[in-house]
Structures are given as C-alpha cells and as structure tokens.
Automatic annotation (TrEMBL):
InterPro entries: HATPase_C_sf, HATPase_dom, PPM-type-like_dom_sf, PPM-type_phosphatase-like_dom, Ptase_RsbX. It comes from Streptomyces olivaceiscleroticus. This is SpoIIE family protein phosphatase. Gene3D superfamilies: Histidine kinase-like ATPase, C-terminal domain, PPM-type phosphatase domain. SUPFAM superfamilies: ATPase domain of HSP90 chaperone/DNA topoisomerase II/histidine kinase, PP2C-like. Residues 148-337 form the PPM-type phosphatase domain. Coiled coil: none annotated. It comes from the Bacteria.
C-alpha cells in the first residue's frame, strides 16, 4: 500500500490578495509560519518568506488582480507559493528570470532569486491570460519526483475559516489514486464530513474504486454527507467512480476529451446501488482535472490554448483564480499518471 501524498488534517489554501504593498508583508509572514508548521528545517522558513515576498512584490508592482496562494505541498514534504494575476503578462519572460533584469529601476533580483531558492519553479505568461508561477520548497531529504505531476488548490467560501471541500492523492506501486470531496453546504459541519471522507479513503486507497466509495459512504453516515469523486490513473488510461457533483475531465493540448460527473446521490445518505466505473482514455501529454462545483464548470467549454498547455500546479491555480465561485468552497485537483 502506498503512502498518502497529502495530510488530510492540513488547512485549506490561504489566499492573500496583493491589492496593496502591505499585503506583501502579510504573505511573507504567513509563508514563514507555514514553513515552520510544515517542519522545514534551518533557513528554509526564511527562504519561504523571501519567495512569497518576491512573488508578491512582482504582483504589487506590475499585475492586475494579483493573488498569492500558500499551502502545504499537494505531494507532501514542503510548501508551495502560487502566484496568479490577470495581466498584462511578461513578454520577455526569459529576461525577467535573469538576475539583474528590472523594469522599475530596482536591483532586479526577484524572479531569479525565487528560481534559485525554490526546489521547483515553473512560470507561464500570456498577454491575455496574465502570469502564473509556482515555487515549491522542500527539505533536502524529500523526494521531488512528482513536482509537476500533481497540483491542487482548496479554498473555503468567502467568510469561512474552514473548507467543506478537500482532496488527497495516494500513489501505489502501479497507479495514482485521487479523491476530491465536497461536504454538503459549507462551514464546520461540511469540513467535518470532508475530513471524515479523507480518513476513510486513506484506509483503502488501493481497493477497487466502488469498494473505496462504499467505505467512504459508510464512514459518512454520521455526518451531513458529501459528494465524492474518485480517480485512478494508470499509464495511458484512467478510471472514475463518484457520486454527486464532482466533475472530472481530461484536458490535452487540442482540447477537452471527456466530461463526467458522479451518479446522483450523496455519500453517507444515499448511495446508488452497484458501483459504476467509467474509463478515461488519457492524452499522452494531457492532464486530468477533478473539481467541485465551487469552480464554474463553464471554464471547460472552450479553454484557450494557454490553459490547455499548463502543467498541473499552474492549471490548478489558473482555474481557482479565474473561475472560482466565491460563495461556495472551491477545490480543483489536476494530475497526470505517474
């Protein structure tokens, strides 16, 4: 049996809107605290603060509607800082990544310093789409094989401290299994249902998907219930099994290939008889996306080329930033096979 890539007790993603330069200091302080809680040793918490500060400063100076998303790594063992904005983009991206390059008369250490300090760094920019960046920081002894294979963002509804959504990923010897769960409503009771579902999932991650769903359903009987989506990725193919309004789709460079939702019902209250598994043919360079109804499903009707070619961490950030419904909890998980 594999080990979970995420800890179901971790808090939801912290979103820091960079609408004033003072927000940069808020983000830097939060990144340092998150690094300390994640157990990163030595100078790594200070490096996390510098990464958040540099990415936040770029948003404050250059961007429109800039947000930093701070969270433990979806793949475990560290933290990540995601930056997203709505423009105007970086037409000379490679020059911007070079030390000493500046458009504002400063020393120009920002993105070059982030790329040096981060265990993994990726960035994409488009004139119409804005800029997306992901900086991940791990302890030296942590494996980083999955750095671009899994991305996730989990945001509570506006005004809530806890998210009624949750997600996790577990790797076993020959496959990757993911779950996204949406507790009914939002707030503490929904969060309790979501965390109960994750704990049940962790007990049987390599069982057949209908059996996993049944186990989660039984665990949720004393909660308000939840929508549950289960995804299993093998080389070249995927399987989906779910109940409720979790959406799954496969996204490749040429467009969306599959769109599925779970069967009607509520895990914990009413589970359809006879678990049904849907097969997914995977694009060799595509990504599978799972999301709750806190992400507006209309994003997938005609996603632009820029979106279709994003790696999983940046795709998750893009969908959360551009298509989130703020009155509800919102979770998006993007993954490729191992």
């Amino acid at each position: 049996m594999g080990e979970p890539l995420t800890d179901p007790s971790v808090p939801p993603t912290l979103a820091v809107r960079i609408d004033h330069y003072s927000a940069v200091y808020v983000a830097a302080r939060a990144a340092r605290q998150l690094a300390e809680r994640s157990g990163l040793p030595g100078a790594l918490p200070d490096q996390a603060a510098v990464i958040a500060s540099e990415l936040g400063s770029n948003l404050a100076k250059h961007a429109t509607d800039g947000v930093l998303y701070l969270q433990p790594l979806p793949t475990g063992g560290g933290l990540e800082v995601l930056a997203a904005d709505r423009g105007p983009g970086m037409p000379e991206l490679e020059r911007c990544l070079a030390d000493g390059f500046s458009t504002t008369g400063t020393l120009g250490a920002g993105l070059g310093a982030v790329r040096r300090m981060a265990s993994h760094f990726s960035i994409r920019s488009g004139a119409a789409e804005g800029t997306l960046a992901c900086a991940r920081l791990r302890a030296p002894d942590q494996l980083a094989a999955c750095d671009e294979e899994v991305g996730a963002v989990c945001l509570p509804a506006d005004g809530e401290q806890e998210s009624g959504d949750a997600c996790t990923v577990i790797d076993t010897d020959d496959c990757r299994t993911a779950m996204v769960v949406d507790g009914l409503g939002h707030g503490p009771a929904a969060a309790e249902a979501a965390q109960t579902a994750l704990r049940a999932f962790r007990r049987v991650p390599d069982a057949p998907l209908p059996d996993v769903l049944t186990t989660v359903h039984r665990a949720l009987r004393r909660t308000r219930g939840a929508a549950v989506g289960l995804l299993r990725l093998h080389e070249g193919r995927g399987e989906y099994c779910g109940v409720g309004n979790i959406r799954v789709l496969t996204l490749g460079p040429e467009g969306v290939h599959h769109r599925l939702t779970g069967r009607p019902g509520i895990a914990g209250l009413q589970l359809p008889a006879g678990g049904r598994v849907s097969d997914l043919a995977l694009d060799p360079v595509g990504v599978v996306v799972l999301h709750t109804d806190g992400i507006d499903h209309r994003w997938s009707q005609a996603p632009p080329r820029f979106t279709r070619r994003l790696p999983p961490p940046l795709l998750a950030a893009s969908l959360a930033h551009g298509h989130r419904i703020t009155r509800d909890d919102a979770t998006v998980l993007a993954a490729t096979p191992r």
